[in-house]
From TrEMBL:
Family: Belongs to the NusB family.
Keyword Transmembrane recorded: no
Extent of the signal sequence: none
Record-annotated membrane-spanning stretches: none
Originating species: Candidatus Acutalibacter pullistercoris
Gene name linked to the record: nusB
Keywords: RNA-binding, Transcription, Transcription antitermination, Transcription regulation
This protein's name: Transcription antitermination protein NusB
Lineage: Bacteria, Bacillati, Bacillota, Clostridia, Eubacteriales
The NusB/RsmB/TIM44 domain, residue ranges: 4-128
Pfam families given in the database record: NusB (PF01029)
SUPFAM superfamilies: NusB-like (SSF48013)
Transcription recorded as keyword: yes
Length: 139
């Protein structure tokens, strides 16, 4: 499984959590039992990491969505931002540009017509404020 596929799985898990509010462990267990869905190790790691750090992640998102609140964001946008901000803040093996690009691509697939540019703007602001320049570590 590629990192891109695992990232998409993580997004789906975080979207399910944003919609239903269940703990990630419960979502993972249910996915495996009821849907025969076994997420890749990165998908599980990212989804659990985003949940574990959700308070800080949501704070950072809130600081960068000027004029909006988290409750006004679509669940797709919220899940995408949570995943990407998790990667930006907690996974230094992924260059910020890769995290941002992948979130934008997922927004194009799953979001509305303006979601990709919105996600790009918010994440660029987050990266500028929170990410020291990193060497490309390859993806």
């Amino acid at each position: 499984m590629t990192r891109r596929q695992a990232r998409e799985q993580a997004f789906c898990l975080l979207f399910e959590q944003a919609v239903g509010g269940a703990p990630m462990e419960e979502i993972l267990q249910s996915a495996q039992e009821a849907r025969d869905f076994v997420p890749g190790s990165y998908a599980e790691e990212a989804a659990l990491g985003a949940e574990r750090n959700q308070g800080n992640i949501d704070k950072v998102i809130g600081e960068n969505i000027r004029g909006w609140s988290l409750t006004r964001l679509s669940k797709v946008t919220l899940a995408l931002l949570r995943l990407a901000v998790y990667e930006l803040l907690y996974d230094d093996t992924i260059p910020p540009s890769v995290s941002i690009n992948e979130a934008v691509e997922l927004a194009k697939t799953y979001g509305g017509k303006d979601d990709a540019s919105y996600v790009n703007g918010v994440l660029a602001s987050v990266a500028k404020a929170h990410c020291a320049p990193r060497e490309n570590s390859g993806e």
